[in-house]
Amino acid sequence: MNPAPGASGAGDPYYPMDGNGGYDAAEYQVGITYDPAKGRLDGDTTVIAKATQDLNRYNLDLRGLTVQSVEVEGKPAKFAREGEFELVVTPAEPIRNGTTFRTKILYGGDPSATPKAGGSENGWQKSKDGGAFIVGEPHSASFWYPVNETPRDKAMFTLTARVPDGWTVISNGREIQKTSANGWSTTSWQERTPVAAYLTTVAIDKFTVDRMALPDGTPVVNAYAPGAEDRRDTGRRLPEIIGFLSSKFGPYPVDAAGGIYLDEDIHFSLETQTRPTYAKWADLITVVHETAHQWFGDSVTLNSWSDICLNECLASYAQWLWQESRDNENLDDRYRAALEIMGGSKDFWASKLVDMGAGQEFHGVYDKGILAIHALRRKIGEGAFARLLKEWPAAYRNANASWADFEAFTIKLSEQDLRPFFDAWFHGTTIPPDAELLPGTLRG
User: Fold this and answer.
1) Which among 52, 129, 151, 311 is placed 20 to 30 Å from 97, CA to CA?
2) What 3-state DSSP class applies to 189?
3) CATH code of residue 243
4) Do residues 264 and 364 lie in contact, with contact meaning Cβ atoms separated by under 8 Å?
């Protein structure tokens, strides 16, 4: 055995220190106790992983919270904090390549006090009713449990959360157990479909909870924070939305559904796996968008943050597909109207949809991205586009993909040379030439 330290970053070009090397996480068993009145979280998390090299030490990502102890395979391990969020673990004995091992971490503190960058890095927040919630992209999980925080390392996720009676805990996947004793309630949620770290979540509030099922029996859990109950009619339409999207994208790719409806003025909603988290302003079309992410972003997960168009361009176009079907909207007319408004805007066209640069990931992918996907539809034709929407998520189900993978997949499927199209629309910073701007029926 030739043990060496695992890498302290997973190699994302924009966030090179995110994630870690030397192992592949298989499952997170996260245990927390949270008292909303005190704002303190106490955690007991076990990370099950498989070594991908001989290891004498390795890193996890954890922000802010104080670590009390670490054990590896039941034996006390040395640990140290480095940089902004690195938890460096040195086991008592080296770990052989290919070995599955368990790391148990006890930790605690006030997660809402951990500094956050703002924007889409929301961190752990206290709700206006005194509860708490966590959403963020690209960073979220490391604010409340030790994790390999890279989308490249998807893993199963189980949460067991203990809160005072009267509070409700909502998370990913299926609720598998709930008990109450001595004034405290303990709830367990389990997501068996591999999930990227930023798509895990927990919300603690005095929720109104609606339960139903999809036609195939998949459980649906919608939770409404106080003040958000007026969106129950929207939540009840989720089976209809999933049915429609399944007709376009193929079978629903996860084994639970629902939504967490907050009464908070956060500026984004997020496709937390199986159960998206919705801001106060979220409407029906937002639910369509976040549900589409269960295929594009959650099941097929980006390889690097420069590939964010795989998530947002496709999920945004799902909104147009819904409006085309439900509102009989003529999408070619809508596309042309958008060109009338934005055609002369240098700023609009300057946003690259691929490899846009760190901190620029969410510029352009929602608006220019929709136009680009509609132009692609007209470029390759209805038949090829319909196949693409189903065959792409099937080919990369529960896996990671890059934008280069998507381009190659689309070129092969369509049997067309689409390189000028992709260069103009997705890599370019000016309005595409007419041949790419107005393909197919758009030319008329």
Assistant:
1) 151
2) strand
3) 3.30.2010.30
4) no
